[in-house]
């Protein structure tokens, strides 16, 4: 278990080179624009139902962990390009984890662009409506697919999610910033046996445009590995636990 002590980023990434990079596998890279967002694509295997996602550019720990992880783990990872939390679509800022419904996208656009012209707003919303399904299909390629998103936090914790969750298993309340959110009751039944904080959100409401609420609505398997920014060991440990124990 992680002691909770801070880990120097350079030291940790150096240690990854000993383990993750020792036997690199198939690792072609590419880029794709989906919903107006530029993604880097990392692929360890060509035919696999496993997907990984890094969607907020200002969460560097998640980026580093996922990039390293893909060197020897089956799956395809989509990593948003850039270092900001928001992305720009046709010149308007939006939180990329709020575009998975029209209602959520509209709230985010209004919040990030308070003086937005209504015509431009409608143009972006219509674009997202046309292209959203292509992004969702890329992240959920079919039966048996499983999507894991990696996020980092600074002043957000599992305490913020308990009230809006269907079930929770809180094993590490001394580490509230580190937790796993899932949308599948079957996955939760396994995850609650872990030593970590876990919440189940299998309800599609409230519709905030997030990927987790979309997953609950459509019934695909989604997990968010949420850890405090800079906590490399904790995020790596939880990601490995999931991959080792969930089908």
Give your account of this protein's structure.
The chain is an alpha/beta fold and 247 residues long. The chain has one domain (9-245): Aminopeptidase (3-Layer(aba) Sandwich), CATH 3.40.630. Helix content is 35%, strand content 23%. It has helices at residues 9-19, 60-69, 102-112, 118-139, 159-162, 185-191, 211-218, 232-245; strands spanning 29-34, 37-43, 50-54, 76-80, 87-89, 92-94, 146-153, 167-169, 179-182, 197-200, 221-228. The strands form 2 sheets. A 9-stranded mixed sheet has the order 1-2-4-3-7-11-9-10-8, with helices on both faces. α3 crosses α4. Mean pLDDT is 91; it is low at 1-6 and 17-24.
Q: What is the 3D shape?
A: globular
Cα Rg:
18 Å
Strand runs, count: 11
- Strands of the widest sheet, in order across it, are 1-2-4-3-7-11-9-10-8
For the record, give the distance between the C-alpha atoms at the N and C termini, rounded to a whole number: 23 Å
Count of helical stretches: 8
Strand fraction: 15-25%
What does the main sheet amount to? 9 strands, mixed
> Low-confidence spans: pLDDT under 50, at least 5 residues?
1-6, 17-24
- What's the number of structural domains? 1
Overall average residue pLDDT:
91
Determine the structural class based on helices, strands and strand pairing.
Answer: alpha/beta
Fraction of residues in H or I helices:
25-40%
Please name the CATH topology.
Aminopeptidase
Regarding CATH, which class? Alpha Beta
CATH architecture tag: 3-Layer(aba) Sandwich
Task: Spell the H/E element sequence.
Answer: HEEEHEEEHHEHEEHEHEH
């Amino acid at each position: 278990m992680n002691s909770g002590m801070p880990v120097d980023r350079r030291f940790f990434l150096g240690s990854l080179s000993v383990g993750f990079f020792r036997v690199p596998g198939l690792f072609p890279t590419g880029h794709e624009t989906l919903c107006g967002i530029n993604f880097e694509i990392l692929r360890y295997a060509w035919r696999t139902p496993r997907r990984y996602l890094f969607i907020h550019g200002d969460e560097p720990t998640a980026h580093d962990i996922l990039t390293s992880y893909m060197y020897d783990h089956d799956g395809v990872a989509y990593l948003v390009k850039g270092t900001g939390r928001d992305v720009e679509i046709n010149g308007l800022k939006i939180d990329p984890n709020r575009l998975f419904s029209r209602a959520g996208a509209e709230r985010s656009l209004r919040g990030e662009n308070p003086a937005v012209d209504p015509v431009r707003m409608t143009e972006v919303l219509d674009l997202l409506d046309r292209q959203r399904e292509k992004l969702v299909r890329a992240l959920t390629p079919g039966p048996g697919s499983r999507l894991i998103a990696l996020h980092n936090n600074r002043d957000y914790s599992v305490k913020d999610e308990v009230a809006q969750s269907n079930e929770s298993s809180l094993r590490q309340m001394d580490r509230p910033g580190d937790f796993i959110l899932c949308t599948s009751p079957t996955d939760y039944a396994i995850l609650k046996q872990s030593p970590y904080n876990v919440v189940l959100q299998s309800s599609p409401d409230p519709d905030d445009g997030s990927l987790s609420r979309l997953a609950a609505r459509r019934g695909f398997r989604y997990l968010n590995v949420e850890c405090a920014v800079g906590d490399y060991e904790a995020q790596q440990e939880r990601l490995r636990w999931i991959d080792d124990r969930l089908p």
